[in-house]
Structures are given as structure tokens and as C-alpha cells.
Protein: Carbohydrate ABC transporter permease
Organism: Massilia phyllostachyos
Amino acid sequence: MSDITLPAAPMPIESAPAARRKKRLSPARIGVYAFLFSAALYFLLPLYVMIITSFKSMDEIRNGNVFALPVFATTAPWQDAWNKVSGGFWNSVAITVPSTIIPILLGAINGYALSFWKPRGANLLFGVLLAGAFIPVQVMIYPLVWMMARAGVFGSLPAIVLVHVIFGMPIMTLLFRNYYASVPHELFQAARIDGGGFWRIFLQVMLPMSLPIIVVAAIMQVTGVWNDYILGLVFAGRDNAPMTVQLNNVINTTTGTRLYNVNMAATILTAALPLAIYFISGRWFVRGIAAGAVKG
């Protein structure tokens, strides 16, 4: 009889210790968690005070217990605050919408042209636009006031929109130029071989694939325009004063009693839109940054 060789017993598979091992709370990790918790508490505590104060009556606020929850919550301060700043809210919407769409569109066209077509003097033009991003706003206020007063548009809605478009163009061009620089050039060459021209390639090829960077640009422009105070105060005029200007008028009143609950509610209403945008589209913001917003 021939000997029958039995198969060797399978060796036990060793588990990867790095992947299966439970994470231990080392002193360094505890320190990191403690720092993060302290930082979150530091930034959330003022917001907590603002929210609970906005639901208190003035008699309860005068008791001095800042961190206590309201005993009898009331929405009257919110109604009063909305009545005072609602006009500024719609003014801010009317300013923000065109001041976001126009710079993004122009910045996308500029970035596309500078990345792929590279006309004569493109580097010089990009340098001039980039230099404009570092010029302080305060330096340009008087020349812009003088020119718009001569043109007869000072203190109007087109004036404040034009100012935001001018100051938004450099950073929008930089974002889109760096984003398109990370796109493979072979894609552009293939579109050119297929007979695509400047506008056809931009509208049918580049623009549809630019959603991540468009979201990044929209978040930056919306928050910048919405939170602006100095440009709205100077160029918008009384009829088009944005929400930030009206908020300053509400808080810095010099007559009567200072209504802290109304002031807190008005402040939260003013900051609600930028906060909502960050919470809703934060994932797109990170994706757009990672997709090439800071690549050069």
C-alpha cells in the first residue's frame, strides 16, 4: 500500500495587530480631546449666552444670572428684532445674489482663459488681478466714491453690487485658475480636436465639472458680502442699507433702554444665513478645496 500523505493543517492566520487592536486612551490622546473640548466650549459659550438671552424678558436679564436658562421663554424679542432688521435682510439678499453670481462667472471665465488659452500678457494680467486681492479696501474707498459720484450712481444698489464685484474678482479668478490648472490638459486638447471653441469648451466641458470649486467660491463670496459692513455703509445708501448696517443702528441706539434680548435676537438673525450655508454645504467646501482650490 502506498503511503497517503495528509494535507498539512492550515496555519492560523494572524490578525493585523495595528488594525484590530483597540485604541487606548493615552495621555497624549486625552490631552488632544481636552484641548478640542475646551476650544469648542470657548467658541460655543458666547453663542449659548446669546440664544438664551434672546428668549428672556428684560426683568429676567436684570437679575444678572447670564448662564441660566429662561424661566419664562418669550419670542417677543425675536419678533421685535425681525421688525427692525427685516428691511435690511431683503436689502442684503438683493445685494448678495448678483454680487455672488457675477464675480463667480467672471472668475470662472478668467481662470479658464488663463489656464488653457493663455493669451498674450496672461501672466501680467494674472499678476495685476492677484495684486488687487491684497489692496486694503479702505485705500480704495475714496477713489470709488469720487468716480461713482461723478457717474451718478453713488448710494444705489448697482453701486454696492459693482463694488463687491470689483473686490471679489481677484480671489475668484485665483480660485478658478488654480482649479483648472489641476485639470488634465489632454482633456482640453481632445475638446479642441473635436472642434470646440472657447465658449463651447467652457460651457460644455469645464463648467459642468466645476461644481466643487463653484460651491467653494459661492460660500466665500456669500459670507463675505453678507457680513460686510464698511462697503454697505458707504456705497449702499439709506434705501439699500444691508442687514449689518441696520443691526449696528439697532444695537447702538442712544435713546431709551438698551434691549439686550432684542439685540441678541437681531445679531443671531444677521448671522443665521452664513452659519446655515456652512452647515449645509461644508462637505462640498472641503471637497472643493481638496479638488484643487489651493493648488498652483
Summary: The chain has a mean pLDDT of 84.
